[in-house]
Each structure stands twice: as C-alpha cells, then as structure tokens.
Design brief:
Elements: H1 3-14, H2 18-22, E1 31-34, E2 47-50, H3 52-57, H4 69-76, H5 79-92
Antiparallel strand pairs: 1-2
Length: 96
Amino acid sequence: MTKDEKSYQSKVAALGCIACRLDGIENMQVSIHHCNGRVKSGCEMQVLALCGQHHQTGGEQAPAIHPFKRRFEAKYGSQEYLMQLTADWINDGALP
C-alpha cells in the first residue's frame, strides 16, 4: 500500500462501521472491507469500514456482506453508494 492509501484507510476506519452508523449506532471495532477485491488496481481506495457482524458474522438483524451481499445492500445501499458516502463524510469532515 502507498502512503496515501494507508492514510485513506485510516480515515475510513476512524468513521467506524458504516452499517452500524446508518443504524444509529457508533461502533469503532472495524476491519477494512475491499469492495472490488484485493488485487485490482485502485482496490486499496475502494474500501469500507465494517464491524465483524456486518463484515462476516451477522445474521437477520445485522446482515453480513460476506456471505449475504444482497441482503446487506438491500438494507444499507450498494457498496458504490456506501463508498461515496464514506468519501463525502471524510471530505466534509462531518458525520451524520
């Protein structure tokens, strides 16, 4: 990762889990989810911060993107939308 990619991912993580935030919960225990794989060019900037539940272990109340991508996106929006929302929050310096 480049210095800029590391910096961006740190800013993304500092927002906390985007899905929890949209549910009105602040959850800072996150990992970085790569929206378009981990090997494509630019992949380190196409990321979301997700808690364990929303990333891999969730169920009905908190659908996980792995393996329930359709349910996750039906509840929270597309990954593209969430990446844009994340970028807007970082650029604006304001959270909802």
